[in-house]
Amino acid sequence: MNRTELPETVLQRRAIVYVRQSTVAQVQDNVESQRRQYALADLARAYGFRDVVTIDEDLGRSASGTIARPGFEALVAQLCQGRVGAVFCLEASRLARNGREWHHLLELCGLVDARVVDGQVPNRV
Questions:
Q1: Pairing relation of β-strands 84-89 and 14-18?
Q2: Mean pLDDT over residues 98-114, rounded?
């Protein structure tokens, strides 16, 4: 995907950068992953988003289903309100660890015409 493939109606909405690592040990030891995830905000701006919000409340929280993820919940709420044009993440699997959550998120994106941009996939700006 490149910037020219995004409709103006998508670019006028918010881009959310979702930052997450599953354990406290990962947060402490894998700082390169965090750096790469936070850098997605620059990619969102390069795509043409002016309103870029980083959600990182779920750092150190597993997505196993037994631990609350307020960041993910905030992301879903903003999607449902139609405020989000794109969700930027490093490895889409960080968004949802089970199929139900992942499919629900993709369905919501489809309903509001939002995109998921995976920073692992080579992007063309």
A1: parallel
A2: 86
- 46 contacts: CB under 8 Å, gap ≥ 6: 3, 125
**43, 62, 86, 97, 122 from 52: Cα distances, Å:** 10, 25, 10, 24, 20
Catalytic residue IDs: 22
* Amino acid making up residue 42: D
Q: Would you state the pLDDT for residue 104? A: 85
pLDDT single digits (tens) 8-52: 999 999 999 988 776 666 656 777 778 888 999 999 999 999 999
Indicate the pTM of the whole model: 0.84
Asked if 19 and 31 count as a contact pair (C-beta separation under 8 A), the reply is no
Distance CA 83, CA 90 (A): 21
